Every structure is written in C-alpha cells, then in structure tokens.
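Incident log, structure service

09:12 report received: a user says their structure output differs between two submissions of the same chain.
09:20 pulled the input from the user's history:
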Amino acid sequence: MTSTTSVATLSPQSSPRVLDPTLTSVFSTASTPARPADPEALVLSVAQLRSLGVHPSTITKRCRPGGPWRRLATGVVLLDSGEPTRRQLLRAAVAYLGPEGVITGVDALRANGVRLSPPPQVQTLVAAGRRLTPPAFLAVERTARLPHPLIVDGLPYAPPARAVIDAARRETDPDRIRRLLTVAIEEGLCSLDDLRTELDQGSQRGSAVVRMQLRALTYTDTCALRRTARELARRCPLPPPRWDTDVLTRGRRLLGTVDAWWDDVGLGWSVLSPTSPDRLRPRNDRAGLALSAAGVVLVRTPSSMLRHHGDLVVAELVRAFRHAARRPRPPVLSEARPASWR
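09:34 re-ran on a clean worker, output below:
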C-alpha cells in the first residue's frame, strides 16, 4: 500500500473517516501545515492515534530524530517537533498515567489561579500498587491516599490542601515552604486547619521542616490577630480591658480563659482563631458554656470578623458592655496569666 497524505484514507477496507480539520492539518505532509487552534490537541496517546487510523510504523517514523513529531512519554506523542508548553506537559502526564493519575503540587495550585513559577517536574499521584518508569519531566508519587480529583479545564488536580503539602514536602528551602503554605490560605483555597490535617494524615517523609514552618505560620497569624484585637479595643469607648485572663469560681475552679476581660462588669471577649488546633475547639466551647452559666457576658468574635469588619466588632463590644453593666456582676474571680493566644 502506498503512503498517502491523509489519515482518512490509510485503511483501504473501511470507508474514509472525516477527521477534525485541526488534526488533519497536523497529519498533512504539506511543508507548512496549519497550526491547531488548541495546542493541547497536539498531545495524543498512541492509542488515540491508532484509533484515528495512523499506522504504528508511521508514528515511529514521524517520532524519529529530525521528524515532525516527538515522544513525550511511553505511549504519548507531541504532534510537533518543538518544545512542549506547560499545558502540553500536563496533558501528556494525564495521558501517560491514565484515568487514575492526579496532578498535585504547584501545578494544582496554579490551576486554581495561584501565581507560582512551575517547578522543573510535573508532580503527580498514582495508586500505591502501580509501578512506572516515568519520563524526566514527570515526578510520580505512589500513595495509599489517592485524592478525589478536582477537574479544571479537563485535567484532574489534587484538592488545594493536598497540593500544598505535597509541594512543600519536596521543597528544601524554608522560605519557599513558607510561601507555599501561606499562598493558598491568602487565596482562600484552604485553612491552616486543613493543612495541619493533611500533614498529619499524609506521608511523613519530608514533613519535619513543613511541620516547623506550619508552627511558625500559626504563631505569626496569632500575633497578627493579637495586634488587631488590641487596636480595636483601643478604638472602643470603654475602659481598657485586662488581657489573657483566667476566669475562676470563688472556689478557684477554672471556668475558662478569655482574651480580654472587663472585670468591673464581668465581660469577656474571645477571638476564635482559625489557627487553634481542632482538638482544642470542644474544650473552648465547653469553657464558653461554663462562663455563660456563671453569669459572664461573653463575646466571641471569629477572626474573619476581626480582620474585615472592625467597626461591627467595636459596636458589638459596646453593646455587650452596656448589657453587662445593667446586670449584677457575676460572682467570679479573675486572674491574669502569661500572655498567650490559644
């Protein structure tokens, strides 16, 4: 059989197929074929090419050095001789790994709009039982915790918290690790709690530095909350509160700890920090109930309110102070404790 210039006529036993004009232009032997409108259409698996009627020998010939195509991975072909774009590499990774492969790390964060420079390798996840010899552009991690992917523009990506931790565990530069941990939080993709949970549940390989940076990030975040709370307290037309105070019964049984305490009226203020570990939240909730049962007027402010709606927080504190002042002071003791933020 003589070679032809169109894939549609390669099989004499079947009627000619009508291919996408974009792909037909790529398969053409013309000296200056038209470029596809979508560069990702240039990345196809060998199985896809064969289903389109391209003979294996044609694929081999075109992928030889100096040929018009190049192999990106075993069974994956770029229908061009130039360097692949990042999106083409991502498409090639998915074609190589198959339907169970998931893109993670920096590329998954970039897919969610985070501005980060791409690393040298595309970081991916596969099931623990798979054995692969990936190409140089691909970093494959086997995992027993393969996440349910988020599909963005047709490609499967790990959820943000998983992507952050996966990327951070492969980093050695503490500054870059810190940047990775903060950027997803700043973009609203996940919380510190999400990152802590993912780090605790995932592989512990490479986690020591990440854990240290998470602790430092928690401390930085709580310090920022402290500054904001004190600034708002100064704006309130109220007496200065006592900070970091234990509230006790007259028998000196601890009822709870508040971040700010107006002793004359028995008013407490607690800021609900997102950096507080999940295991402390039930304890904090029980403390709030115990304080309220003892007659303490307690204002609990989410950190997002503190940061973004300061005027509303000030108004709520003033209302609570007036309400507390109209009631008998509760029979409780107060005791300052060393400055800390739970």
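09:41 both user submissions now match this output. Likely a transient worker issue. Closing.
09:42 reviewer note: DSSP finds twelve helices and 13 strands in the chain. Residues 81 and 155 are 24 Å apart (CA to CA).
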